[in-house]
């Protein structure tokens, strides 16, 4: 047992140093990607359940690493948040999204909205609202073309501060959604106080909405709650027809998931939108 413990200990220290080296390397690579334009922004359609039309898109960050291939955002975003690199990275995302929105806005697509995920660290900065305003101005975009997705965690601390910021965004005309709804620790109280527009039901509920009656009950309750508060509801991670029909039957407004489309490069999305989009 003693020997086993020793080898475990050795393995453990080896792993630890590997992970420190790994994080350092990744941090350097992230900087290189930031400096050299190594990131991509993909777009996933949001679909209206009644018409089947594309009514919006979520911008999702992609990092095609030159050696390791695609590194998922769930891997590098927490690191970028730790190192502070999330700030220049968020700026790149916003800049790119605004440029792309500008290119989408033709004909009947002049109001087409794109959702951008906002990191709590970015949202908490004192210049957050002015940075959003500046981007809209630089690309001459109407505020309704840009929607921000924030998680419940953002709403937890600094309540007064947060309410003020959301109020400024609302005044500007930028819509805000609560992402991953139902997975945070916050009370439902904020829903009635905050000027938000939409909630996105987390994929973990949608995933088992057919097989787990508790997930089904929670999902129905979230939709009812949102509608009573005059909020729109989006289901994320819709993968099957039966999930879609369940959600549609229970009055979910908009849908996002592999059943409709995976996130795709801007060029592909733009073509698809012209074929199936418009409102
Ligand atoms: P999220 O905001 O909840 O985004 C939805 C995630 O679900 C995306 O993963 C998307 O590709 C995935 N997804 C969409 N439909 C389906 C489906 O039907 N089935 C399954 N299994 N997955 C589906 P992705 O792109 O890997 O992003 C993961 C998370 O990384 C995002 O979760 C978001 O929290 C974060 N993220 C992505 N891009 C950005 C960004 O530009 N800025 C910030 N701050 N965070 C980002
Ligand atoms: Ca999101
Ligand atoms: Ca989510
Ligand atoms: Ca998420």
From TrEMBL:
Name of the protein described by the UniProt record: Diguanylate cyclase (GGDEF) domain-containing protein
Record organism: Pollutimonas bauzanensis
Residues of the full protein shown: 437 to 715 of 851
Residue stretches making up the EAL domain: 23-277
Highest taxon listed in the record's lineage: Bacteria
